[in-house]
Amino acid sequence: MTKIRAAITSINGWVPDYLLTNGELSKMVDTSDEWITTRTGIKERHILKGNGKGTSDLGAEAVKGLLEKSGTSPDEIDLLICATATPDMLFPATANIICDKAGLNNIFSFDINAACSGLLYTLITAAQYIETGMYKKVIVVGADKMSSIVDYTDRTTCVLFGDAGSAILLEPTTENVGIMDFIARTDGSGRIHLHQKAGGSVKPATHETIDAKEHFVFQEGQAVFKFAVTKMADVSVEIMEKNGLKSEDITWLVPHQANLRIIEATARRMGIRKDQVMINIQRYGNTTSATIPLCLWEWENQLRKGDNIILSAFGGGFTWGSIYLKWAYDPK
Ligand code: UT7
């Protein structure tokens, strides 16, 4: 029987207009362009402004653009899954709200929360619905309004994050392209180093939790950094070995964009050159679920059918993983 694979057939990104630069952050907290650039690689990030605007707006804009770009009508879409760590609200799922805003009315939709690995987890999940023959057109959204959970008086976290939305169209193929393999891992004991302390069922919102700033991102940067460097490099090398890929076989590494130093360490361990790595952290910062698709979207015109691409991420949870895919189309 011919194997059905899930292939990316279109991709879109969307960022809000407002640019928060290192210069502006230096006026808000005790930091500098020099510190942020050398420690993280980030120069600026886009921020979603406006009352009543949330992650679903970032996702819906990306989805509307994807449908237009790919010439797909909303009623052709079978399933939409949204990766996000900053849902519009605890319930309903942000995926449902995106579908409503983008005009996808007769649809199955849900969210996946795997923090910075959310896009990988969601792509892996979506691919199963295609590979089993169940569905023909599935949209994966990666969207996060990180500015909604960032404390802009905390210099250790406020310089890191940005807001963005992205959307990927997955369709079946019987050619030797698409998602070839994946590795996904979780270690819940790592949650102590990176989480949001309040606002869930363990610690619902109270005046005290708000006064204690417990609704913002809490991160022990150095501890997370050590795990991220090791785990992202390990899993990237593991997927290469599992698929018999040498460094010269890899066309592109597409890493989660959390810190330029983590990206460079991963590339070194894989034995690949810097010009084989997609890096745009300088312009977007860490947009959590949107980093990997924002790269693919920006590099789309340089990608060729059959290119060997490794996607890798590490994030809160802890969660981490890699996907090996063969790009499915030439520039259109
Ligand atoms: O995407 C999800 C997963 N997250 C990650 O992968 C993030 C992993 N962690 C990191 O990327 C890095 O740990 C950070 C970028 C968050 C921090 O870089 P670092 O090199 O680990 O710095 P550090 O936390 O060790 O701090 C070094 C110094 C400290 O001062 P002292 O104690 O040495 O006097 C900090 O207080 O830098 C200080 N510092 C800052 N200084 C200027 C921390 N943040 C800033 C800042 N500006 N924004």
Main features:
single chain; 332 residues; alpha/beta; Peroxisomal Thiolase, Chain A, domain 1; four-stranded mixed beta sheet; 13 strands; 33% helix; globular; binds oxa(dethia)-CoA
Task: Note down, in words, how this protein is organized.
This protein has 332 residues and is α/β, with parallel strands linked by helices. It has two domains: 5-178, Peroxisomal Thiolase, Chain A, domain 1, CATH 3.40.47; 179-326, Thiolase/Chalcone synthase (Peroxisomal Thiolase, Chain A, domain 1), CATH 3.40.47.10. It contains eleven helices and 13 strands. The strands form four sheets. It has a five-stranded mixed β-sheet, with helices on both faces. A four-stranded mixed β-sheet has the order 8-13-12-11, with helices on both faces. α3 (55-70) crosses α4 and α8 packs parallel to α9. The model has no long low-confidence stretch (mean pLDDT 97). Residues 31, 35-36, 39-40, 116, 155-156, 159, 221-222, 224-225, 228, 258-259, 262, 286, 315 line the site of oxa(dethia)-CoA. Oxa(dethia)-CoA (UT7) binds next to α2, α6 and α8.
